[in-house]
Protein 1
Amino acid sequence: MYGDDSEGGRMAERRGGQPDVLDLWRQLTVLTGRLGQTLDKRLVREFDLTLTELLVLDELTRGNPRGMRIQDLSDAVALDQSSMSRLVSRLTAKQLAARVSCDHDRRGVYCQITDLGTERYAAATRVSRAELGAALDAAAFDDRLASLVARLTRPVVAPADT
């Protein structure tokens, strides 16, 4: 499936002129793993936030100001409900989020971002964007990831009106 390229790395077998989808998946997994580890370390060090906690705060800033159901947060960041409940407990302990009840849906538990959470989210997001941009720029020079980075970072072109 792989042939040696001139750099000694691996190159995806081409199928109909396109990279093998399994190879693209592997590249994506490697890239997100590397970026996630790098970003997670920096977020914990500078903001006492994990990357997953930042993603939950991001969802809370985009959702209803009165809060989001824990189940909806779970779906949004691909965590099971038990893991999300523990994560919300950590955010609550840090005073970055609060559990709230909703008058119209007493069955569900809701989570709402606090003012401190909004401030920490804004600062962490600025750093995250810069860190991710730098990491993607560096990954663009890795022969094993360059084609994937090019696909991810190329401008989206709107279809022409016909």
Note: Residues 1-12 have pLDDT under 50 and may be disordered.
Protein 2
Amino acid sequence: MRLSCTRPTYTLAKGDAEQQQAFEKQMELIKKLITPDMILLYADETHVRSYQILRTTWSEVGRQKQVPTYGHHAHASVFGAVNVLNGDTLLQRAATANATTFLDFLKLLKSRYSDKLIVLVLDNARIHHIFCSFLGRLHVFACLVALPH
């Protein structure tokens, strides 16, 4: 038997097909209902790191592989939204991604599209839950559409 030293990999679990179909129908309807005083945005965030992630490797027993580092691993988070109908994008860099920095991004969206009703499509990330409280504070500037699980 031959063995190798590897790390496991992630695979996508199958989503609920009915929920996906309902979401697709909902998005098609929304796209048809968009008027010039509305904007349809898909939004999300990503995390950028300026260091290599160490992977599993073979080494001599009792002698762990050492990788020199300078002691600082810089990172940033980037929030973004894309206008589904014309491809325009809006990006905002943040030191970290949390409810506070996501709220700052929502404020940026509100200022950028102050004259429009924003229809915002988000995934189900925990930091996106601040969205509902933001709606109340700004007298409902947007409509939320959540991706299916």
Note: The first helix runs from residue 17 to 33.
Protein 3
Amino acid sequence: MIVFENDGLIDMRAATTFGVSAKVGDSPIGFFGTGFKMAVGVILRNGGSITLYRGCAKYEFGKQLRRIRGKTVHIVTMNGDELGFTTDVGKNWKAWQAYRELHANALDEGGSIRVADAKERGEKGKTKIIVDWSGIDEAFADADKIFLSTKPAFDLGEVEAHPGESRIIYYRGLRVFELTKPTRFTYNLTGYEMLTEDRTLRFPSLLPGTLANAIAGCDCAEVIEAVLTAKGDFYEQSIDFSDASSAKVSDTFLRVAQRLKADNAIRVRGAKGLFTEAASTREEFVGEFYVEPTIVEREIIEEAKALLTSRCPNLTFPYARVLKGTGRDSVWMTASHIDIPSDVLHQGPNALARQLLKALASHHSDRTASDWLVDLIIDRVATLRGPKANDDADWLDEVA
């Protein structure tokens, strides 16, 4: 027999009305305002008993057999009075889920959970919920599998990595999903996640992407290496890192991935591609993608530049570098150099000229690319038409 208690007196309307949380905390467990009522239904349906003390006032929950629209149901009662729900609520819930609701409610109100005394009674100024059911007793013994009791070993941003393997995924310290394979670490999601009314992840298919982004963006080398080298019997082996955003990849991830890639030790999908995509934009790592342009490639570069400067003589270009094997399909420009993927070069001078012009426009970050191009066109037309261009609006038709 387990007792859940806290200081203060519960509002009995909240305890018996759907859509009103029985607690004031902001935990995700209280989002729907149904948890306590569903826990009551689960306990009664499985032959357990539940008694609530509001101070010294005693409220016993029970069930009465009734027929409604030709169907036999058990109406939940409180001190003999019928409430507006049956024992069918939480129909697919297991004992640990009912325990989780009562445990979370007590903790969110600053309370505690313990084994009940044989003569447990109400106390002035306290709320007590006493449950006599073996399912709750067992869940109490395994509470560490329902609520995280460890401190995080690593902070990955919107995910915490706690020590130890686990099949359980937690959300803000609460068990919300069970995997078919264990994870290298015990993961606690701390960002925003949508839950079902059963307090499980509404979109578990998004979990691999959430973990991929957290791991790729973190500075925890130990976690990164453990995940990238995970074998097939671990859940992390199924994470596809192509779901991660290359713009948010940390330098630590790139350094670890670079070393593991050289040793051919990366086992998870998409990690090599993510490394290539992200590293090719970072000055520290881009060196391994440089190649000496061939004579033909040099000619293509010069021809593309000539094509642009023949129309816009004032255009200037920084030093051009050729990158190979990056998977990128666009030219990137900084104040000191232009990075040209070899795949773009192979499309010929006309395609490269278009890419160079786009890169030049994007490089002018103090203005939008469209503004920069418009200014360039106006300057060029004004030069071609001479001093009278400012007094003659017909040249706009020629540009159009």
Note: Residues 24-32 have pLDDT under 50 and may be disordered.
